[in-house]
Write a structure and sequence with these properties.
This protein has 351 residues and is α/β, with parallel strands linked by helices. The chain folds into 2 domains: 157 residues, Rossmann fold; 179 residues, Dihydrodipicolinate Reductase, domain 2 (2-Layer Sandwich). Helix 1 crosses helix 11, helix 5 runs parallel beside helix 6 and helix 6 runs antiparallel to helix 12.
Length: 351
């Protein structure tokens, strides 16, 4: 049984804790937070932009050790995987501390805010020969997983074009979200879901061409074309955090294959979930069907699948490509280059 230690008990730390309850071959054995109430099991103050509020947790019943100092958790010889769920700008220090201590590490996305920090983290993992895994959860959602499986199967022919959309209103559910230097703003914290998925599906592009809204050097809204060696492949994305407050969240895609089109469009409008278009497969025989998806019913099911993949990587001693630190670093690089393109109005090469 692998033992996981979570550092950081905000909403994402709680999400990982809940998701890990359903893991096979692993469990959360410890967590670290400086909050006295959370250390005592009172998580009722935790709230995110999806999922339920925190509850009161019986730590003794669950056999979970609380630590007020994350360094004590890292030093715990029983912990096999350190799961870092701290604010974005704090990732590098704690990840490198855990790697230096000989631990494998899973860190929430984005890998970092600063690209040089991401480079240092990847290098630190390579130096000590430990896994640095980055928790990009989007590929584990059933609609997005279906896209990858369908494109790679080749059953509907070659991928010809793809457009992705991910927008939110200006985030105000956390004071840290207002500090762009801590989060990277929507152009990093939100949009990196897209750059990671696009790189996973299509490969890292050769260049980007972006128009958008940039404030104090950080992307607020970006409209990007991803340029590949194959000039017959058209890939684009709309992503940002400038929507009116009634549009709290929206994401979806249009995927164009030679013999089929995949459509998906979900929104949170006026505080209510609205499925404008569930995953739909449109084929050349004129039919439009909704594929059967394999998905858990729990609100954190995709995170359970993500964590299970990390556990399998440790068991098999092979880093899962979907959680690759290098891929996460490259996704961060795209976010920064898109801002550069938006500021200069020029195509920017991905070196």
């Amino acid at each position: 049984m692998l033992r996981i230690g979570i550092i950081g008990l905000g909403f994402m730390g709680m999400t990982h804790f809940e998701a890990a309850r359903r893991l096979k071959g692993a469990r959360v054995a410890a967590f670290a937070t400086r909050d006295p109430k959370k250390l005592a099991g009172d998580w009722t103050s935790i709230q995110g932009n999806f999922g339920p509020r925190g509850e009161r947790i019986d730590l003794k019943k669950l056999k979970v050790t609380p630590y007020a100092d994350h360094r004590e958790l890292i030093a715990d010889p029983q912990i096999d995987l350190v799961d870092v769920c701290l604010p974005n700008d704090q990732h590098e220090q704690v990840v490198c501390e855990a790697l230096k201590a000989g631990k494998h590490v899973l860190v929430e996305k984005p890998i970092a805010v600063d690209l040089k920090a991401a480079d240092r983290m990847v290098a630190a993992a390579a130096k000590v020969r430990r896994m640095l895994l980055v928790a990009h959860v989007l590929p584990f959602f059933p609609e997005f997983k279906y896209v990858v499986e369908t494109v790679r199967s080749g059953r509907f022919g070659k991928l010809r074009a793809a457009h992705f959309r991910r927008v939110i209103c200006t985030p105000d559910w956390s004071s840290d979200m207002a500090d762009l230097a801590k989060t990277g703003g929507p152009g990093v914290d939100l949009h990196i879901h897209d750059t990671h998925f696009i790189s996973h599906l299509c490969g890292v592009p050769q260049a980007v061409h972006t128009r958008g809204i940039v404030e104090n050097g950080w992307g607020q809204h970006l409209e990007t074309q991803y340029l590949y060696k194959d000039t017959g492949l058209a890939v684009s994305c709309t992503s940002g955090g400038v929507a009116a407050k009634g549009l709290a969240f929206a994401h979806g895609f249009e995927i164009y294959l030679e013999k089929a089109t995949l459509l998906y469009d979900f929104n949170t409008l006026g505080g209510q979930p609205v499925m404008n278009r569930p995953l739909t497969l449109v084929t050349n025989d004129g039919k439009a069907t909704q594929p059967t998806l394999k998905a858990g019913t729990e609100w954190c099911a995709a995170f359970t699948a993500e964590l299970q993949t990390a556990v399998a990587g440790l068991v098999n001693n092979e880093a899962p490509p979907l959680l690759s630190g290098e891929l996460a670093r490259d996704a961060l690089k795209l976010c920064h280059l898109e801002v550069k393109s938006a500021l200069t109005g020029k195509v920017v090469a991905v070196r």
